[in-house]
Amino acid sequence: MTSTHSNDKPLTVYKASAGSGKTFTLTLQYIKLLIQNPQHYRSILAVTFTNKATEEMKHRILSKLYGIAHQLPDAADYMDRIVKDLNLSQQAVSKNAAEAMSLLIHHYNYFKVETIDAFFQQVLRNIARELDLNAKLKVSLNDNQIEEKAVDEIIENLRKGSQELDWIIEYIRGNIDEEKQWNVIADIKTFGRNIFKDYYKEHSKEIDRIAEDANAFSTFSRKMQRLMTDARNNLIAIGTDFFSRIAEHGYSESTFASNACGFYARLRDFKKEIFDDDKALGATGRQLLDNPEKWLRAADRKKNPDADLLRFAEELTLQLNKDNEKRRELVRQYYSAMLTKAHLNQLRLLHSIEKMVEELNRLANRFQLSNTQSLLNQLIDKDDSPFIYEKIGGRLRFIMIDEFQDTGRMQWENFKVLLKECISRIENIGSIIVGDVKQSIYRWRDGDWKLLNDIDTAGDFFTEQLDIKPLQTNYRSSDNIIQFNNAFFEAARQSAYDNAASDPKGYAELAKAYADVEQLIPAQKQKLNRGLVEVRLLSQETYEEQTLSLVEETVRMLLEQGARQKDIAILARKNDAIQLTAAYLAEHLRDLHVNIVSDEAFRLDASVAVCMLVNVFRVMANEDEALLKANLAKDYQVYVKHNEHVDEDLLSHARKESGRNANDQPIYSDSFDELLPNDFRHEDRLKLQSLSVYDLSEELIRRFQLNSINGQSAYLCVFLDKLNEYLTDNTANLNDVIREYDENICKVSIQVDNADGIRMLTIHKSKGLEFPHVIIPFCDWALERDSNTIWCSPTEQPYCDMPLIPVDYQANRMQQSIYRNDYYEEHLQNIVDNLNLLYVAFTRAGNNLFVYGKADPGQKGRENRSELIAKCLDSMANEKQMGQLEATEKGEKAYRYGRLYIEEPDRNIATASLNVFNQSSTQESLQLELFDNHVQFRQSNQSRDFLMPEDETKRSQYIEMGNILHQLFSNIQTLEDIEPQLNKMEADGILYDRELTPAKLKEVLQESFRSPVVREWFSPKWTLYNECNILSVDPQTHEVVKHRPDRIMTDGRQMIVVDFKFGNRHREYESQVRQYMTLLTAMGHEHVQGFLWFVRLNEVVEVKL
């Protein structure tokens, strides 16, 4: 049997461009390992980065194994490749596929396809005892919530004289000096989230060491301030010394040419121009650097100049060159100290926040998932064979890493040790890494594209261990889309090179990252001329209005041409653009009955019922807020009572005279209670306050009939789940729950799969997806923002006394400081981030691509994506003669390439259905129902009934055939349940009489189920309520009465109630069933039927109301 890789290198790195079959390659390699040896199922670890990707990959592996095992058409491409690569017959491949699938299903815990976080959590659990981690430790995912609580604790515990109070006061003073807001709590919370970032964790111990000295930060801050002051004074001194010198020689400023002394005047007056190389010298000053005569006035130069003055001018030229260099050094010192000092107040607060978070976690017996990597990294600590992998690493032979470009550096350092151990064994050939630098868009989640870009030069692997293969054929897009993207990103790459030209190292890295940008067109798609690309760059004046109008026109055109709604996707950079576009389309496309599908549309705060429930909380927590009550009353009347005249009703109830004061003036109050449920008046609300928050939620859902609002049950269920999660870890009142909802719960989206509608999502969320028709509005985001803060590790004294510094990303200042290289690194990262965003967005398109941006250039030095698009389109249309580019007098541009292509829907459904793993799912509707349940605790002991009766008469009730059958019918839903239930009854000791065996009962049952009516009752079509209680109140005694039919069934349209009888007929039996029917009708159920089934007589009697 041959290896899975022809080159026999243990690690293959696939650089997979968009649409190049990355998932196919991963699945194929996984299956090839299993076909080689089905026992490999224990030895493979495949790592992905999202739970959804994990689910999809597991499903694909199992479905393709099934398809190969049964030689189905949907797995033919896999079969052909495996037969060719492994040199096996189809029969041998099918046999091994069937065996591997069986092993995976029956040993599912060894099916290791999981997220990288899940894998490392398992590693951590394996060594929990060694780390003294409590077995009941709770794992938390919500870092922000914990950090904000830590900041609140710090603020609440501030005491006079405490360090934290002094730091915050200093922070406030600094903000006031810079004319920023004095309330810094929100800023501290936002900045405090940096404690969860890898760059802070790497240096946290060093910062802890520095923080042990209470005065360390203040001393360092004063040192930076002195450097700034010294630099400022020395800059001013250069100017004042110059004017003193010329005065000593008997000259003045007027002796020299106009603006000749401007450089020194700006230094003397400490003008902002001195911080800019060009403006500091000015045009005249630059001429003076190498031409002393320029110091002289024009008139003096024409006649014979004074020899002393000319000699002095030559001295000034030499001095100017020296002073300009000195200016640069002092500006560098000034900016270096300024940037270093800017965030020291926040930095030292980070230490306190980190310690408070640790304390809160200890008290809550909680472990934060985000700490997993740093903890494991400390344990590995350069060890080639760390003990943490002993329990899992021994059985692993093959490792597969998906989306490698999104891996963080610390994650890689932890994972690399295990991978190197696996590939070090000669027999382990089959590990793979898959990724694409061009699709790295998660740097804000610590993703580092350089890991993939430099994998062949980083020195982690030997040359003979590593094989790098590009996947360059695009199977996703039509030929015109591929050709456009090839040309566009070739031009975009060149533009990016120009941006990075001042940084040779960055230029080389960028060139390598986009070296494989050109993709191949599959043979079957070549020269078909399918697919349209349309780009419009619009005027600033009507940009938003025009963009939204064009999106509407494009959607209408696509639908009219036969495109399905679910084949259209609208991608945007930010959520606010999605919300704006969704609202516009919802209003302007009503005539087409268009559905908008987006995460925003399915968030909990988009649910009418959830918002009403939270508004009820707000009313109960703020009884005096009339506006809250008015909004709640309006929603209740509109969505529950369907009141069309609600505004008039609100107005009439808003201001009513409720009495007179001492001066006989009317007292007004609202009476919105009359528009709310009858059991939600003021006195009712007081009683409700005694309930727990969760019980209160259920009670309010019932009283406000929120479950009756169409389509809201799923939202309410998810809200109750999230509320329960929060209350499990927190003792909370209504205000706490309201705050948690506003900050976190409101953002939760319900999961909706395969919803039919136009998809709207951010570019980040679109990664990995594909759509036939893609529309990208507002394609104009900026390349860089000065508001960013980046983290730097200074290497020069005295700045490096602090190991980690947060620095404001400001191009001019950073380039003239010790942080120059950090600037170039961040600048390169921004170029790659934004070019990658554009690449991901454009390559989602299968058939047609529509892009709308801004024609007007951005601010000077602030290139946006529209400018890049304009440059590329000019190059493509004019230099490469590709597409048509038109420009208007307003500067707007319109580009068009190719022709519209609407693909016919795939109708090959029958073939797909042959694979049991690819069966179409049926969507089930969900209706939330709430019932009062007054619980009475009772210790259950079935054996008392079956095995240990109090007297012999009790025993006879289960010996009698009728009661045994009654018990059986009550426990089965369909006829298929009979045999398992009989076996269970025998095992439980209920069938203990030798005369009353399962075989004997089967004979009786065959006779009983001859009736077609009875067989229908036990078919799978029914939803069953077995021996459930119906509660009613006796009108005379006012006591609760329980009614318990034997079987209630519904198919969503009709409801059937049946009582089983094993004796002769009695009139009261019909009265009993009739009572059940009356109660069910009163509960709101329509089409209720009732039956008596006389089993021994084999008769069915229908009961009429």
Task: Kindly describe this structure.
The chain is α/β, with parallel strands linked by helices and 1105 residues long. It folds into six domains: 229 residues, 3-Layer(aba) Sandwich (Rossmann fold); 102 residues; 121 residues; 216 residues, P-loop containing nucleotide triphosphate hydrolases (Rossmann fold, 3-Layer(aba) Sandwich); 144 residues; 162 residues, Lambda Exonuclease, Chain A (Alpha-Beta Complex). It has 42 helices and 27 strands. Strand 24 and strand 25 form a beta hairpin. The longest helix has 35 residues. The protein is globular. The two termini are 76 Å apart. About 2% of the residues have low confidence.
Biggest beta sheet attributes: 8 strands, mixed
CATH top-level class of the largest domain: Alpha Beta
Instruction: Give the overall shape, derived from the CA principal axes.
Output: globular
Low-confidence stretches: 908-912, 936-955
User: What's the β-strand tally?
Assistant: 27
The helix fraction, in percent, is 40-55%
CATH architecture of the largest domain: 3-Layer(aba) Sandwich
Number of domains: 6
Quote the beta fraction.
Answer: 5-15%
| First-residue to last-residue Cα separation | 76 Å
The CATH superfamily of the largest domain is known as P-loop containing nucleotide triphosphate hydrolases
What is the tally of helical segments? 42
Summarize model confidence as the mean pLDDT.
85
Strand order of the largest sheet: 11-14-10-15-18-9-20-19
- Would you tell me the structural class of the helices and strands? alpha/beta
